[in-house]
């Protein structure tokens, strides 16, 4: 019997976290899955761990290939997937026990081609707030929302772009020859998602935080990219035709794209600060404050700041628009302080 959901995990030097990742799949309330562990040329104990897990459970399969990057590993999993639905999981992250069940039931109940949840950041000794997709309606919605609100959210909020918080129909991926963009180093999830949405009739969303994203220094997502805001801006520009294909006007796309770049660049610096400390991050922070995309961030209304920086700092964030750069710098320094994330 074919599995209903194929879970694809790209694995690269993830031996320290792989067992916890696999255990989170084994603990799923929904049991009709297959797990594809794609070892992408790891140099640690990951290849052996993949083989050991494949030997222990017939639903788990180990694939080994030379190092080609996370997109190449995910594409290798796509080529071998047999499930009706596709899920993506990073090797240093985890799923809550209800992840597959809730997203599958949501897709079936709403006849959705895309089923979406939210995520929660975590690290050793620290649990973050749930990170929702602001403005996305809970429940099922049709193509009018996909072409309107959802397209803009993907542009403005990087937290909405991850493919790991979503369930995809494999038939849509295969019929339209969709894959992760090989060689792209930034925004590969967003490009895949935009191309998928072009063929998506209905979607459904739950604000439940069912995916657990680990903040790990050196991981694929948290590694320092050394990319200034201007370069991230250029990479976003390359996606503008995909947004325009979803009905977003060129003027509106550029406006919201610039805003999204500013927020995303800040998050890059936030990750750097958590991984390597404030002294390392401060020079990049100063450059960010002087960059063109930051003008868009400073122009955001206070209520949007409260969405971008949720939790106990929201009352501070609401004053940012009036205080401008001095207050922004003070908030970022406070965010960088380890005691605020203990």
Count of structural domains: 2
Q: Determine and state the CATH class of the largest domain.
A: Alpha Beta
What's the number of helices? 15
Overall geometric form: globular
Biggest β-sheet, characterized?
10 strands, mixed
Query: What Rg is obtained from the alpha carbons, in whole angstroms?
Result: 20 Å
Structural class: alpha/beta
Helix content percent band: 40-55%
Order of helices and strands: EHEHEHEEHEEEHEHHEHHHHHHHH
Can you tell me the residue ranges where pLDDT is under 50 for at least 5 consecutive residues? Answer: 218-226, 308-322, 336-342
CATH superfamily of the largest domain: Spore Coat Polysaccharide Biosynthesis Protein SpsA, Chain A
Number of strands: 10
What is the CATH topology of the largest domain? Answer: Spore Coat Polysaccharide Biosynthesis Protein SpsA, Chain A
- Quote the beta fraction: 15-25%
| CA(first)-CA(last) distance | 46 Å
Summarize the structure.
The protein has two domains: 5-214, Spore Coat Polysaccharide Biosynthesis Protein SpsA, Chain A, CATH 3.90.550.10; 229-341, no CATH class.
In words, what does this structure look like?
The protein is of the alpha/beta class and 342 residues long. The chain folds into 2 domains: 5-214, Spore Coat Polysaccharide Biosynthesis Protein SpsA, Chain A, CATH 3.90.550.10; 229-341, no CATH class. It contains 15 helices and 10 strands. The protein has helices spanning 15-26, 46-56, 70-80, 99-109, 143-156, 170-175, 188-197, 229-237, 240-245, 250-276, 278-289, 292-298, 302-308, 314-317, 320-336, and strands at residues 5-11, 33-40, 60-65, 85-88, 94-95, 114-123, 126-131, 139-141, 166-169, 203-214. Strands 1, 2, 3, 4, 5, 6, 7, 8, 9 and 10 form a 10-stranded mixed sheet that branches. Helix 2 (46-56) links the parallel strand 2 and strand 3 (60-65). The radius of gyration is 20 Å and the shape is globular. The termini are far apart. Residues 218-226, 308-322 and 336-342 have low confidence and may be disordered.
